[in-house]
Each structure stands twice: as structure tokens, then as C-alpha cells.
Design goal:
This protein is α/β, with parallel strands linked by helices. It is built from 13 helices and twelve strands. The radius of gyration is 21 Å and the shape is globular. The chain binds NADP nicotinamide-adenine-dinucleotide phosphate.
């Protein structure tokens, strides 16, 4: 039986959901693909667990908590000499500074699967460095869940390009969180209540200011643009915020202050409704990238969106009159973890030779 060792950084909302999903499907994957998915390590910022023979997933939290001091970098150091055969690093953090770490693990033979946008949306040179290395070393670097959570967005783009289509523009609402907030404001709810609820539901980024400033959508737009072959820097993305946010202070402090924005946002929404329109946070990737609030008709495709939905409309040479549309819930722990899991299974299938 082939084996795929999994080392995971991040044990928050997405990381925890992923461990649960893999544990629940392990026997089925063994039977259907002939690959055993073995979690050999899980780490957070300050604690982790490592067992080359495989962690007991029924009690992984306790094992991680007992491993104080074993952070992500130490875990990888420990694993790189010991883990043999096929292995994948899963990045379920929201860390910025991981490109060097990615490079080290790929050099030791790991594949990478990630839902973390930041390392893919930094300087272009870093993006190229890691992508080129993975190509040279013939390692997977899969990150479907970085855009649209569990929706097949990057796959669709890749399939279009690989089959010789030419992308003219990708346009739509790329943020489940911001769509959820737009719909809440449409119903007359307060912004502060919507953000608190979106956090409880696991839709927001670890720091919700990344959503509200438009940074999270800007990262997704940049990732899509780069996948489509555009050589853009983060500063090339024209980014207007969903609402003004104060960056000073921590997340809890910000959450306490957010009600200051309620009246202004409610007024903006009421004025749009009086004009028969709604605000939606819209992204467009063509030769360039733009993200920001746009007033759209109440009854149009974007105006009718409600809840944490995403829409990605691909206008291409082949799909020029009617765009190819990928749509559905684009936020939440279960769907995001499933997107990561599907990427792990792509690696597993390749190992099993059934890709
Ligand atoms: N929520 C969504 O719908 C959604 C959709 C698509 C993509 N994502 C992405 O999924 C990622 C995870 O989101 P989340 O909601 O699960 O965040 P979260 O609940 O805040 O969890 C983040 C985890 O990362 C760990 N971590 C931080 N720095 C680390 C490091 N250097 N080494 C190892 N672990 C580290 C944290 O450790 P501690 O436990 O020690 O704090 C925590 O367990 C983010 O990049 C987010 O953008 C989320």
C-alpha cells in the first residue's frame, strides 16, 4: 500500500476541519486509491505533535497541546530527516513569511497543498521562485482553496488555458465574507452585527480587517491574474476598501470599535436601495486587477446574490457571448477544508498512478 505522509501547519478553523475530514475518509481512500493518508505532524504557532508512524487522530488535539515548543519550523526540521516516501506539507495558516520554508520543504521532496493566500500574493519574484522550484523538482504546489474555498476556480482557469483558450476577463464577487455582509446590509442589519456573525460562522479571515479593507479579495484577484500568466505585483492591484478600517491595535479592539461604521454603511445601503440598486464588492481581472464596491442592479445576477456566495465569470475567446460561470458558497470551514482535501487527493492519485 502506498503512503502519503501529511505534515500540517495550522490547527485553527480550517486545519481542524481538515483533520476531521481526512480521518473520516481514510479507510475509503485506502480502499479506493490504495493510498494511506498518514498524518505525521500537526503544528500551530507554539505547539505541535510529531509521530513518524502516524498520529492518533482521535486525540490529535491533546497530542499537539502536549508538544509545547514544537512550532511549524521545528516540526519541519524534525520531519525532513525522518519522513520517507511521498509527503505533503499542508499550509492552513494565514502566515505571510513562508516562501523560504516552502522552498526548503520542496527541496527535501515534499509536495505543498495550501489554502493560505499570502505566500502566493507577495512579491512576484517570490511567487516565481516557488512555482519554478516546484516545476523543476516535479512537486505539486496546489492551492485551489485560496480562491473560492471549495469551488473549482483555479482548476477551471487552468483547464481553459491548457486547452488553448484565451482569457479576456475574470469578473465577479470573490469574497464569501463580503457577500454575506452585503446581503446582511440589504436586509437592514447593522454592519457590526454582520461582521460578528460572519466571524462566528468561520467566514472571515483570522483578522477580519483583511476582508473589510479588500485585501483578501485583492490577493485572490492577484493569484488568479498570476495563474492566468500576468506578471503583476501586489501594488498593481487597484484596491478600494469595503469600508474604512483602523489597522492600529489587535482584532478584539477592532471588533469593539466597528459599530462606529454602522450608521455610515446603513446610509450608503439605503441610498442605493432608493435608486433600485445594491452595493456588491466586485473584482475584475483583465490586463490589470481592480477590486472595490460597485453599485449593481437589485435584480441583476450580482444584486440577487445572498449569503456567503462567490461568483467567478470567465469571459474567454471561446466563452465570449456567455461567460463560463463558477458560483456557490465561497467561505466556511467545511467547504474550504474540502477544497484542501481534494488537492491532497490529487497528490494521492498521482502517487497511486491513477491520476
Ligand atoms: N475561512 C474561510 O472561509 C477561508 C476560505 C479560504 C481560505 N482560507 C484561509 O485558510 C487559512 C486558515 O484560516 P483559519 O480560519 O483556519 O485561521 P485560524 O483559525 O486563525 O487558524 C490559523 C492557524 O495557523 C496557525 N499558525 C499561525 N502561524 C503559524 C506558523 N508559523 N506555524 C504553524 N502554525 C501557524 C495558528 O496557530 P495557533 O493555533 O497556535 O494560533 C492557527 O492554528 C487562512 O490563510 C485563510 O485565508 C479561509
Amino acid at each position: 500500500m502506498a503512503r502519503l505522509s501529511i505534515l500540517q501547519l495550522g490547527k485553527g478553523a480550517i486545519g481542524s476541519a481538515l483533520v476531521g475530514q481526512v480521518a473520516a475518509r481514510r479507510q475509503e481512500v485506502k480502499a479506493r486509491l490504495g493510498v494511506d493518508l498518514v498524518y505525521v505532524g500537526i503544528a500551530g504557532r507554539t505547539a505541535g505533535a510529531f509521530a513518524p508512524g502516524g498520529l492518533d487522530l482521535a486525540r490529535w488535539r491533546a497530542e499537539v497541546e502536549a508538544g509545547a515548543g514544537l512550532d511549524g519550523r521545528r516540526l519541519l526540521k524534525k520531519a525532513s530527516g525522518v519522513v520517507s516516501g511521498s509527503a505533503v506539507l499542508v499550509d492552513a495558516t494565514a502566515e505571510d513569511d513562508l516562501v523560504d520554508l516552502y522552498r526548503d520543504v520542496v527541496a527535501t521532496g515534499f509536495h505543498i497543498v495550501s489554502c493560505n493566500k499570502k505566500p502566493l500574493a507577495g512579491p512576484l519574484a517570490d511567487y516565481r521562485r516557488i512555482k519554478d522550484l516546484c516545476r523543476r523538482k516535479r512537486r505539486f504546489f496546489l492551492h485551489e482553496a485560496t480562491v473560492g474555498a471549495g469551488l473549482p476556480v483555479i482548476k477551471t482557469l487552468r483547464d481553459l488555458l491548457d486547452t488553448g483558450d484565451r482569457v479576456v476577463a475574470i469578473e465577479g464577487c470573490f469574497s464569501g465574507t463580503l457577500n454575506y455582509l452585503c446581503a446582511a446590509l440589504d436586509r437592514g442589519e447593522k454592519l457590526s452585527r454582520g461582521v460578528a456573525r460572519a466571524r462566528e460562522l468561520g467566514y472571515t479571515e483570522p483578522d477580519p480587517r483583511d476582508d473589510l479593507a479588500g485585501t483578501d479579495v485583492a490577493r485572490k484577484a492577484l493569484i488568479l491574474a498570476r495563474e492566468a500568466g500576468l506578471d503583476l505585483e501586489p501594488s498593481d492591484v487597484r484596491q478600494e476598501p469595503f469600508c474604512k478600517v483602523r489597522r492600529r491595535g489587535g482584532v478584539d479592539e477592532f471588533m469593539r470599535s466597528i459599530s462606529e461604521l454602522d450608521a455610515k454603511m446603513a446610509k450608503r445601503w439605503r441610498e442605493a436601495a432608493a435608486r433600485g440598486s445594491r452595493w456588491r464588492y466586485v473584482a475584475r481581472v483583465d490586463g490589470a486587477c481592480r477590486v472595490g464596491l460597485a453599485e449593481v442592479p437589485e435584480t441583476g445576477a450580482l444584486g440577487r446574490l445572498a449569503g456567503p456566495e462567490n461568483v467567478f465569470a470567465f469571459r474567454t475567446e471561446r466563452y465570449k457571448d456567455h461567460p463560463l460561470v463558477v458560483a456557490g458558497p465561497g467561505a466556511g470551514a467545511a467547504v474550504t477544508a474540502a477544497g484542501v482535501f481534494a488537492d491532497i487527493l490529487k497528490v494521492a492519485r498521482a502517487i497511486a498512478g491513477t491520476a
